[in-house]
Specification:
The chain has about 180 residues and is of the alpha+beta class. The chain is about 30% helix and about 30% strand.
């Protein structure tokens, strides 16, 4: 029986199965002219790079020390953002950032998140857009809900808006003006 299996394997290799498995994967198709001119999102705006991943933490100083002292990352000072109900720390990862979030005040949206997730966890992703006002209008037309009626100034001093997770595959998405 073993000889039969070896013979079948040799025949498969000789027949080109192995060479087909080792062949390079074809490249993805290039976008069509209409897709390239309007970007992924729409004619008036386009998505940019991942700006940051936000992590809610129950102890901001402990989390800050972990990323700075244990992992050796460049870590910002704590910045209170009372208009958003959070204190933030940014962890620079070179190609993007992590935003550590901690509740600030009684009306903090992060306090509710931490009540459900005692150890903390991923809160949202932030993606840059080239025209946030056009993005907001286009997404409203597409029936994508946002958590506010209009963009607000975020932690980087730029307009931001949060999209409802129920319309975004269960993920809270923050759009930020590039």
């Amino acid at each position: 029986m073993a000889q039969v299996l070896r013979a079948a394997a040799a025949a498969a290799c000789a027949g080109g199965l192995l060479s087909r498995l080792q062949a390079p994967v074809p490249a993805a198709r290039a976008p069509s002219a209409s897709q390239a001119s309007r970007g992924v999102a729409g004619a008036a705006w386009a998505l940019g790079r991942l700006n940051h991943v936000a992590i809610a933490v129950p102890d901001l100083e402990k989390a800050r020390a972990f990323y700075r002292d244990v992992l050796g990352a460049q870590v910002s000072e704590v910045s209170p953002l009372p208009e958003h109900g959070v204190s933030v720390v940014f962890v620079d990862l070179g190609n993007t950032k992590m935003e550590l979030l901690h509740p600030l005040g009684n009306d903090s949206p992060i306090a509710g998140f931490l009540q459900k997730n005692k150890a903390g966890g991923m809160h949202h992703v932030c993606i840059e857009v080239d025209d946030i006002n056009a993005a907001v209008m286009d997404l409203k037309e597409k029936k994508i809900r946002s958590l506010s009626d209009e963009a607000k100034i975020g932690a980087h001093g730029k307009p931001v808006i949060f999209l409802h997770p129920k319309d975004c595959g269960g993920v809270l998405v923050e759009l930020e003006q590039a």
